[in-house]
Structures are given as structure tokens and as C-alpha cells.
Amino acid sequence: MNRTILSLIGAATALAAITGVASLTAGSSDDTAPAAKAATRLPVERSTLLCPTPTSSDVGTTTYTAFTPKGTGKGTGAQGTKKGTAGLLPAQGPQDEQKDTQKDKANEPVVPLKEPGKPVTAETDRSDAPALIGTADGLLAPGWSVQQTTTVAAGSGRGVLGTTCTAPDTDFWFPGASTAKDRQDYVHLTNPDDSAAEVDLKLYGENGRLKPSTDEAITVPGRSTVPVLLSTLTDVDATDATLRVSARSGRVGATVQAVDESFGSDWLPASAEPSGSVVLPGIPADATDVRLVVYAPGSDDADLKVRLAGRSSSITPAGHESLHVKSGMTAWADFGNLTEGEPGSLVLTPEGGAGRAAPVVAALRVTRGKGADQETAFIPATTSIERNATAADNRSKGSTLSLVAPNASAKVRVTASAGSGGGTPVSKTYDVKGGTTMAVVPPRPASGKGGYAVTVERVSGGPVYASRMLALPQGGVPMFTIQALPDDRSTVAVPTARRDLSLLNDGKQ
User: Fold this and answer.
1) How far apart are CA 55 and CA 241, in angstroms?
2) Which residue, of 60, 157, 253, 507, has the fewest CB within 10 Å?
3) What are the angstrom distances between the C-alpha of 5 and each of 43, 245, 363?
4) pLDDT of residue 10
5) Three-state SS letters, 45-107
């Protein structure tokens, strides 16, 4: 995905950060310093997040949890940073012409944070709950995370639908989308800006691009959200497809809501940017079916080696040693009961070495339960944790954290925040063996009440990937959702500014 541009005060450099629009304050320059200085890392000072419309069900309940981790030492904020504010406001829906009730609620922020380190929660059972557009600044911006978790007790949308609210962008890939008759997949497009955005939606199946019903772009008015049913974009019935969302103008947040008549529902988040190697972390130990969907957006075919990073080692799944993905086409593999009672993660690497790597995007559809009591969730390919990542919504029961070190071993620190109703943070350190997945129940805050956040910090060693499963079973159905935990991009590297004294010499040497 393209990254949002950052402006720097004191260093005229454009940087990119996944946390959204951010302005950074750098220290003053030193004219007597050496010509070359190493870049320093400073916290972002402004973040933008977008949450999709949660549900239209009359039996749905949505919980929002907002959290910003506490900084440490100089990492608590840039020089002169103000304390900060953070909150989300309702977006306008496609049929909402700024009704009076919306006007009354327009200035009521959802889950406004007061301080880093303590989560804030809010709950609604409204079937017309809107999409949300929010910003955080000052000390509340670095690592600001908002989790939206919806439980639908009955009906075709039955299940737990969880998603981490995302930063606006201009390009998204969704392998694992579907236009099949037994699926209703909606892509929710939310525009955080005042001007309209023009968005292209393209679907790719096993033989390339699916013939579109129209080539017209979707217009998303300013500060608004628009849901689009994917099956209206083409007449082709595709069980496994890849959706590309790209903005011709402006920027949007995009997330796919997948509703299956037999397997429940959940949000399908965007895959990480196309890469030659991808990691899909956190397949539950009791998964009854695992389905991989991969798309190759480049000009070359991708030949991928498939590994399962299990509890004690990495293995090659029998019958699925490799996967060939043709350029511009979607491929899939059904692994069935892949983990056989142990947690695991899929690691896809190029066959024949990195020199032949063709970029891909990928996602897993994971099923738990049997018969009429099945439920699904999605795991997209994600990025490694360079420093920190956060899962904002955790309860007293039901959270499982998966930590994956696909190559070298790594040391990871996991911190449970105070609860939304109080308590004391608790940290625990884990050693993750290279080539394995460690599934743990994360620590809980001491004497805490309410929901809490879990922050994962890579302390040392090789790359680490992570995801969090939240299980909320109801009536014998193993309802659950899984959120991948990419790095929160709470800091950016800022080169030290230096005055060019040659401009003061009137051209004389």
C-alpha cells in the first residue's frame, strides 16, 4: 500500500507512516556539527484511523476499544509535543443527507482517549451505527489503535466480526474475497477528507481479471462511507477471488465484510504489500479447515515454497510442498485440518532463492467447529514487528496470542495494559525459537477490570510476526475473530537538518 505523506518541522523531508497523516517535530540543527549525522527516530504527532460500518443486524452488539501505549524515556513524544487528543466521529452513510439526528451526534466523539496506557471502551447495539473517522495527536498519536468487535447472535451474518480500524491509503489488496452465491461480500470504502475520492474496484479470479459489469469508478463523498456488494461488480461467480481497491483521486479506508450462509461472518482485512515472501501468523490449534488464497500482481509467475511453522519446528505440509501462481491470477490451496491440534503459521517463500522472487499477496480463511456450528475468520499476510504492535480489545477470557519467528529465534516482551476500569500493567517475556509458532494466553492486568490492550515488543533476535485470536463462543458455536498485528509505525526516522553555509558566501569559494 502507498503510505500517507508526513510533514516535518525542522527537517524538510517527506516521510511515510502507516499510522496516517503525521507531522513530526525534530530538534534544532547544529551548524557546527559534522556534515553527516545518523537519522534519529521520533514519534508521529498525528494519526488518522477509519472504522467501517459495523453491522445492519438488529441482534448485533459492537464494542469499540481505543488505546495508545505508554512511551518510555524520550520515546514519549517529540520535543514540545502537547498532551494530545484522540477520538472518532461518525461518517455520513450513502443514504444519509445529514439528518437532524446525525447533526446532533456529529460532535460526540467515540472512545475519546485521555491518556496513554489506559484503554477506553464504548458499546452500541444500534443496527444503524455509522462508520467512524478519527484522529489522534500529540502524545496520543504514536501507536494509537482502535479495535471494532461486533457479535451477531443469529441470522446469516451470525458470528464475531473483528477488525482493527485502519489508516487511509490509496491501494489495497484483498485475496480471499468472493462473488459466490453463498457469500455476500461488501467492501466498505470510507473517505476521511472533505473532497470526494474516486476509487477503482477490480476483481481477479483463476483466469485473470473477472469481466466487470461496469468500468466506472466509485465516488466516495467527503467524510462519508460507501459499501459496495462485490457480486454487483461482475456476472462471474467466483468462490476465490482477489479484490484490488485503488484510488484515482483522494484516499480511503477499505475493509471487506464477508458473510457466509453456512460459515458465519467476519472482516477480511487487506493483505500486506506484495512481497516475494509472506507470513500468515496464528492458525488456531483446533482449526478444522484452512484455505489459502494467493494472487500474483506482477508480470512474472510466482513459485512458492510452503512451510508450516509449528510449535516445535517447521515442516512441509504433505501434498502441499509448493504452489504455482500465474501472473495476474488467483490461486488457492485447501489444507484441511492442517495443524492437527497444534498452533501454527504459514510461511511462503520463493522456490529457487530470493533472486527469482515474484511478489504476491495472500490470505487464509480459517474455520473452527463442525456441521452447523462452524465459524470462520481471516488471516491476511502481514508485516513483521520492528518495534511494537497492539491488539486493543482483550477480555478476561478468550484471547490467544500467536508469536512467529520464521527464521532466527527472537525475544519478545508482551505487556497487558491497565484495564478500562483500572488495574496495573503486567509484562512477560517470551523466547520464540526460530522456525516455530508460540501460542500463549497473554498476561492480564493485575487487579484490572474491563477490557485491556496487549502490546507486543520485539526485544532482540530475528523478525517476529504476530496475531491475536479472540474467541467468544455462543450456543455451541465457536465464534471467533483473528487480527494480525503489524508494526504500529509509531516512530519514523528523521534525518538531522543542517544549514548549507555555501548559500551565505555570495557564490565565493
Assistant:
1) 23
2) 507
3) 15, 19, 27
4) 34
5) CEEEEEECCCCCCCCEEEEEEEECCCCCHHHHCCCCCCCCCEEEEECECCCCCCCHHHHHHCC
Beta bridge partners of 336: 290
**Looking up cell 509472506, which residue turns up?**
278
For residue 495, what pLDDT is reported?
78
**Distances from the Cα of 411 to the Cα of 239, 279, 405, 441, 459, angstroms:** 40, 18, 9, 17, 5
212, amino acid identity: P
- pLDDT value at residue 54: 96
Residue 99: its pLDDT value, please?
A: 52
46 forms beta bridges with 137
What pairing do the DSSP bridges indicate for beta strands 480-484 and 253-260?
A: unpaired
End-to-end, the C-alpha distance of the chain in Å comes to: 46
Q: Is the pTM of this model over 0.85?
A: yes
- The β-bridge partners of 267 are 257
Residue found by looking up cell 462473488 in the block: 179
Q: How far is the C-alpha of 366 from the C-alpha of 54, rounded, in Å?
A: 21
Q: If we measure between CA atoms, which residue out of 245, 323, 329 comes closest to residue 291?
A: 323
Count helices and strands (H / E) in the chain.
Answer: 1, 39
pLDDT at 81: 55
User: Where does residue 395 rank: exposed (0-12), middle (13-18), buried (19+ CB within 10 A)?
Assistant: middle
pLDDT on residue 1? 47
Q: Which three cell numbers mark 366?
A: 480459517
Quickly count: other Cβ atoms within 10 Å of residue 286's Cβ.
15
Q: Cβ distance 369 to 313 under 8 Å?
A: no
Separation of alpha carbons 414 and 145, rounded Å:
16
Measure the CA–CA gap between 336 and 338, rounded to whole angstroms. Answer: 5
For the chain, which residues score pLDDT lower than 50?
1-36, 73-80, 97-98, 100-104, 501-509
Closest CA to 22 of 43, 47, 51: 47
> What's residue 83's pLDDT?
85
Q: What are phi and psi of 501, to 5 degrees?
A: -70, -15
Residue with cell 474491563: 450
Measured from the Cβ of residue 336, the count of other Cβ atoms closer than 10 Å reads 14
Burial (Cβ within 10 Å: 0-12, 13-18, ≥19) of residue 340: exposed
Which of 461, 307, 487 is CA-nearest to residue 383? 487
Task: Round to whole Å and give the CA distance between 24 and 287.
Answer: 44
